[in-house]
Write a structure and sequence with these properties.
By secondary structure, the chain is mainly α. The protein folds into two domains: 84 residues, no CATH class; 46 residues. It is 54% helix and 0% strand. It contains eight helices and no strands. The mean pLDDT is 87.
Length: 153
């Protein structure tokens, strides 16, 4: 029997980035028998998979089959857990971390163009960066880079 809080839990898992995209692949019976074990919670699924191998001495092949993941995914999960504990089981955001186009000389150039107290002219700055560095930068990238550096506008 599922509780009324299930839609709220799914929403919370989605917001935190921990919603398992394939809960139907989890075949461990305990995830089907009780409310405590939730196949939609990827952190819980990953932890139980690792526990199954290390504590219950299940084979990696058996565990990956039961939890619906590949063997490489198991080893990546184990390495993340060994490196960071339970926090390592939380999926990492994909994509670049920070401004990857606007760095070095181009970022310094943008910061030199800023005037304290004046509004940020991201579109104009993007055009200047294009002319000077032949680098196509979106104005929002400039806004993020400037906000991240906490440079006065």
């Amino acid at each position: 029997m599922k509780s009324k809080s299930q839609p709220l839990k799914v929403e919370a898992l989605l917001d935190e980035g921990t919603l398992n995209p394939t809960p139907e692949k989890v075949r461990d019976p305990k995830f089907r028998e009780t409310e405590f074990f939730d196949p939609r919670d990827i952190v819980q699924v990953r932890y139980e998979m690792l526990r199954r191998v290390s504590i219950e001495n299940a084979s990696v092949s058996a565990a990956t089959g039961e939890y619906g993941v590949s063997r490489p995914a198991y080893y990546q999960t184990k390495a993340s857990f060994d490196r960071a504990g339970v926090a390592g089981l939380v999926p990492q955001k994909r994509g670049p971390r920070g401004p990857h186009k606007l760095r070095g000389e181009a970022l310094a150039f943008v910061q030199q163009q800023l005037v304290a107290g004046a509004p940020l002219r991201a579109r104009e700055l993007a055009k200047l960066v294009q002319q000077k560095f032949d680098l196509d930068i979106h104005p929002r990238t400039i806004e993020r880079a400037v906000a991240g550096k906490k440079t006065p506008r």
